[in-house]
Each structure stands twice: as structure tokens, then as C-alpha cells.
């Protein structure tokens, strides 16, 4: 698929297949079109050329959370069910269950401004997953968090995904994060006219200990293999 914005070609002849139930991360230099790919999958934009085939409904977790500041955590988490016209009592009961599941029990009546960054992310994850999408799109969801909170959130998203049979397409600028979470990492070239230039199977066993695995020999080998190619694209993006 190809996507142009006026005279600028963001991605060109990009070929990407994500199999059902897999956790796949997109990495690449800044400005290479990673978020554009997610927007195409979500059908927020249409390709200029080619087609996008999506087998199932997609939920989208943006880099900036989509919590409404005038609604409580409970009402924010239930929002997607409200849009689907689920009866209010049932929607709130499901929302309470998800709030407990993501570790926010006791904060049902709090407003977004009363939550820490990590708590807002937990609420946003519940808001995204409660509508039971077959595909979950995540656009650098933890990039603004401190490293310790990020590690906790990475573990929580793996817990949600594990056994769910959902497909996750995850955009990140952090190669270590991509390897730690994923079944596969797809590498995009520097833009403009970005394309997939590498696909790497992550053969690390699951479940994964995210705190300790980065010193694992195989983790280091995979990192070096991908970084050798990614580094060249980063340099190329800075030169353009």
C-alpha cells in the first residue's frame, strides 16, 4: 500500500502481513510512517494506492490517552459500551470489572486529572480492551512514562494479551521494548516513501520476565541483529 499527503509520500509499496493472535511491533526512525500504518489499519485514513485488509474490529490506544476530563474513570471506561448502546447498568458492571483487572479499584469515581500517568494509561487500556476488539492497535502508548512505570505497563499489556487470541500491532521507538513484547518485529525504512525492509521472529520463550530478560544472551543477539539495520536507517533519516 502507498499513502501520500499532498506531494509527500509517507509510505510506498509497503507490504505487511500480521497473522491473527500475534503480537507484532513496528520500529523505525522518527517520521518513517509507523503511525500512518496504524491509521490505515484503523481506517482513519485510506491508502492512496493498494488495499488494506483487516479481519476483525480494531481498538486503538493512542500515544495521548483519550480520557474525557469531565468524566470519571468509571464513565470513561464504559464509554465504548455506551456507544454500542449496551444498557447502562451492564456497561458499568463490565467497566468495574475492567477497572479492577487493570489495578484501579477504588478510583472508579476519580477524574483523569486526579490520576498519575501510569493510572491514566491503565484506564485507557481498560477503555480500549472492554469493547473486545479482535485487533488492538497501540501507538507508542508508554513513551511518556518513566522507565519503572513503563516496565509495569508492558507487563500488564502482556497479561491482558496472553491467552486472549487478540492480534496486537504495536508502534514503538524503543527497540528493547519491541523485542521484549513481541512475536515479531517489522522494521521500516527511513522516510519518505518508507517500506518494510526487515521482519524478525522473536523466538524468546513465553511467559517473559521483562525485568531480567534484557540480559539474556538470545535477547542481546536479536537486539544486535535488528539494531545493525535500524542504525543505518536512523543515520539516513538524519541526513535527509
What does this entry look like structurally?
- The chain starts with a strand and ends with a helix.
- It is globular, with a radius of gyration of 18 Å.
- By secondary structure, it is of the alpha/beta class.
- The longest helix is centred in the last third of the chain and has 23 residues.
- Helix 7 crosses helix 8.
- The chain has eight helices and eight strands, in the order βββαβααααβαβαββα.
- A six-stranded mixed sheet has the order 4-5-6-3-7-8, sandwiched between helices.
- Strand 5, helix 6 and strand 6 form a beta-alpha-beta unit.
- The model has no long low-confidence stretch (mean pLDDT 93).
Sequence-ordered SSE layout with sheet pairings:
Elements: E1 3-5, E2 8-11, E3 23-27, H1 34-41, E4 58-61, H2 73-77, H3 79-83, H4 88-101, H5 117-129, E5 135-139, H6 147-161, E6 167-171, H7 175-181, E7 184-188, E8 196-201, H8 217-239
Parallel strand pairs: 3-6, 3-7, 4-5, 5-6
Antiparallel strand pairs: 1-2, 7-8
User: In terms of structural class, how would the helical and strand content be classed?
Assistant: alpha/beta
Q: In DSSP terms, counting alpha (H) and pi (I) runs of 4 or more, how many helices?
A: 8
Overall mean pLDDT stands at 93
Strand order of the largest sheet: 4-5-6-3-7-8
Helix content: 25-40%
Distance between the termini: 23 Å
Low-confidence stretches: none
Number of strands: 8
From the spread of the alpha carbons, the general shape counts as globular
Q: What is the element string, with H for helices and E for strands? A: EEEHEHHHHEHEHEEH
Radius of gyration: 18 Å
Largest sheet: 6 strands, mixed
